[in-house]
Design a protein that fits this description.
Aldolase_I_AS; EC 4.1.2.13; Fructose-bisphosphate aldolase; TIM Barrel; eight-stranded parallel barrel; lyase; binds 2-O-methyl-1,6-di-O-phosphono-D-mannitol
């Protein structure tokens, strides 16, 4: 594996591959395990992640990198192999979520700021030693009749830029994730309103990245798609693809090697169909792929149910979603492939 930031970034968005977001914090993974009536112990979290990382077909062919949570980067498989080494053995790159989560922004009713900059330089150096070659930081923006405010957008963009500069100093590629929520409160905004907010947020983020002297060739953008609110969904696949590509072309310099979307609460198949429509229908200067959490894992976690005997079925479910999204990353996914699999 090459150590230049540019080479790592290019490998993260290699054609036909994408990123597995397995960086659920303890609270989020507990919610996922609650859905299968499983207690979230350290061993259960290890077993679940080990099951995913040992799904050889998926990992070798469709997963370029895996975003881990601090605990997982330090964990070993049942046989003592470090989980990060399982990922590397499959030819994939270990990454690490370094933000400390979105907290209430003082003075801004209902908006958040992502924390975690204090001590980040030292943590990044340690994560590098533990094998991480890329990192992730998520800033969260909610839409309502009155939100977002300019102050909250700018402060989140500044935090993303400071994080990205620190990553590059440590030899780690930053994934810059400004997420405009699809399922916020009330979650009934139109696709046009999502476009408007995404446009403002991306403009602000790239201005701040520029001011922070972040090297665009050595980063990956992880945006939301332009989509209507979860409680008002009516946009077609073509409309989502068209408006998403339009907002990206208006804001993302071509020196950024790749864009890897979050799924944000879309169904598995919607997230795949939208990505495929963009890659099939438009010429773009960057590789466009996935960095999905829920849309890659939902079927696998359900099939697993916390039971060893279900590991093959869960790995098959994960491999299927990874393959469908690998096809979408080249624009080659079809509904027929989804059904025939
Ligand atoms: C996997 O979920 C990630 C962690 O969330 P928490 O810090 O809240 O536990 C999340 O950041 C994820 O990487 C992205 O939002 C993309 O995941 P989705 O599920 O939206 O594709």
């Amino acid at each position: 594996m090459s150590e230049r930031l540019e080479d790592i970034a290019i490998a993260m968005v290699a054609k036909g591959k994408g990123i597995l977001a397995a960086d659920e914090s303890s609270g989020t993974i507990k919610k996922r395990f609650d859905s299968i009536n499983l207690t979230s112990t350290e061993d259960a979290r290890r077993d679940y992640r080990e099951m995913l990382f040992r799904a050889d077909d998926a990992m070798k062919n469709y997963i370029s990198g895996v975003i881990l949570y601090d605990e997982t980067l330090r964990q070993s498989a049942r046989d003592g192999t470090r989980l990060a080494d399982l990922i590397k053995a499959a030819g994939s790159i270990p990454g690490i979520k370094v933000d400390a989560g979105a907290k209430n922004l003082a003075g801004f009713n209902g908006e958040t700021i992502t924390e975690g900059l204090d001590g980040l330089r030292e943590r990044l150096n340690e994560y590098y030693e533990l094998g991480a070659r890329f990192a992730k930081w998520r800033g969260v923006v909610a839409i309502s009749d009155t939100l977002p405010t300019w102050g909250a957008v700018r402060q989140n963009a500044q935090a993303l830029a400071r994080y990205a500069a620190l990553c590059q100093e440590a030899g780690i590629v930053p994934i810059v994730e400004p997420e405009i929520l699809m399922d916020g409160v009330p979650g009934d905004h139109s696709i046009e309103r999502c476009y408007e907010v995404t446009d403002l947020v991306l403009k602000t983020v790239f201005n701040e990245l520029y001011d922070a002297r972040v090297k665009l060739e050595g980063m990956i953008l992880k945006p939301n798609m332009v989509i209507d609110g979860k409680n008002a969904r009516k946009a077609s696949v073509e409309q989502v693809a068209e408006l998403t590509v339009r907002v990206l072309k208006a804001n993302v310099p071509s020196s950024v090697p790749g864009i890897a979307f979050l799924s944000g609460g879309q169904s598995d198949v919607e997230a795949t169909a939208h990505l495929s429509a963009m890659n099939a229908g438009y010429d773009m200067p960057w590789n466009l792929t996935f960095s999905y959490g829920r849309a890659l894992q939902a079927a696998a976690i359900k099939a697993w149910g916390g039971k060893d005997e279900n590991v093959p079925a869960a790995q098959a479910a994960f491999t299927h979603r990874a393959r469908m999204n690998g096809l979408a990353a080249t624009g080659a996914w079809t509904e027929a492939q989804e059904k025939n699999a």
